[in-house]
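Reviewers of the previous submission asked for a worked example of the structure-prediction workflow described in the proposal, so we include one complete record here. The input consisted solely of the amino acid sequence. No template or homolog information was supplied to the procedure at any stage.
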Amino acid sequence: MSSLFSVATARPLGKGTQSPAGSLLDSELATMVRNYKRVVAGSYRALVQDELSTHLPHGTLLVSPKIDGELWFMIFDEGEVFLSSPTGRVVSGDVPLLVEAKAAAAKVRGRTVVAGELFAAKPPTQGRTRVGDLAAVMGGEDKAQVERMAFFAFDLMLGGDAETPVRSVVYGERHEVLKRIFAGGKRVQAIKTESVSGSEKVLALWNEWVEGGKGEGLVLRADGLVFKAKPSITIDAAVIGYTDSSDDPEGVGALLLALLRDDGQFQVIGSCGNMPVEERHAFKRALSGKEIASNFRYANSKGALYRFVKPETVIEFKVTDVQGEDSSGDQINRMVLEHGERGWTTVREMPGASILHPVFVRIRDDKSVNPTDIRVAQVLERCQIENLGKRAERVVLPPSALVRREVYVKEAKGQKSVRKLVVWQTNKDGLDRSFPGFVVHWTDYSPGRKDPLQREVRVAPSLGEAQRIADEIIAENVKKGWDRHA
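From that input alone, the workflow returned the following structure tokens.
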């Protein structure tokens, strides 16, 4: 049994196994794969097709097709080969692509880690692969369609082969190592890459690979820069709120948008503030004075709260990408809301999507707020989201419990100063990740001070850490002259 990962809670994957998130036990590997997406893939610059002629740097470009799958890592270690996701999900054992990869294991030197796209292969006559296909072929446990799983390597993170045993800082050299390691592979290959100069040749590859159905876009590398180009994506969504513009009192700053789940619940997808001035003014005239109640508070990047309105307007907007995971590989959660006579009420956060670079296109007068026209499933062609069709149920959160309370009083010149420490356990962190495990609250009231009331709030994941913080606060702030009260 490997010491690098756990199969204690693994499920069958054909004749192999798939282990859940957190199963990668080696701390060095776990840190490496988790940080890759944040540091490297998270720094990609997004482009749409129209910008390929104007926004690319001069000189040689290394261009590859963007495969619509999931980021995974192939790990070679002392003859062992397995796959890990950024969150530590592990695929191991007798899976066809891993069996094929074992032939490449003899070529690597030392521990070698390769980043690539895990996807579900299908015949060209069925169109290009999509991310949802991967989840489908990996389902079914021992009946999973593992023969369709494929891996296209696009970067070398650690190690190498006999010719280049240490990872090069030059991407072109790293790709050459991948080509040698996976030469002759069928299910496991180095991603096809062309070296070209000039926008005309890039557009030719776009026509061949993207329009030809071989990829969802292009990845372009030059002088340390990485560009990810995709066709622009359009989405129809309901306007559920707006902010005032900080620069133009006659216009809105941004619109808050939501999609409809199958059961009629709304789920926030994000906001759109990129629109012409005349549209900003038109939305301000249309929405101003129509605010309704909401127990959900949502702020923009400047801290301004959205004003909520009835979901009556549908707009079309375009984005460069839709993502179901953040830069660390964690799922993105979005609030699910219900709209009724009392306005907007929160249900709970559920797995959702993040939109990149939204741009207003038009108002869709031909569409209305219903589960077909603004269906949440619009995002499924771009990313895989769990439980999207599952009804969101309100979570009844347990009450917090008081752990520690201390009050200190000092009297001078007829005035009383009070300092109070409170520590409580939320009992909610296991149900809602927005809650910490413990909260330490310090209150300092001094009537003779310009700012009489001062507060400090600190959070902690454990009781021991909370008590340590509390002891530190007491030691720093309670000196001679303070009397403890019950």
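The first strand starts at residue 11 and ends at 13. We consider this example representative of the routine output the project will generate in years two and three.
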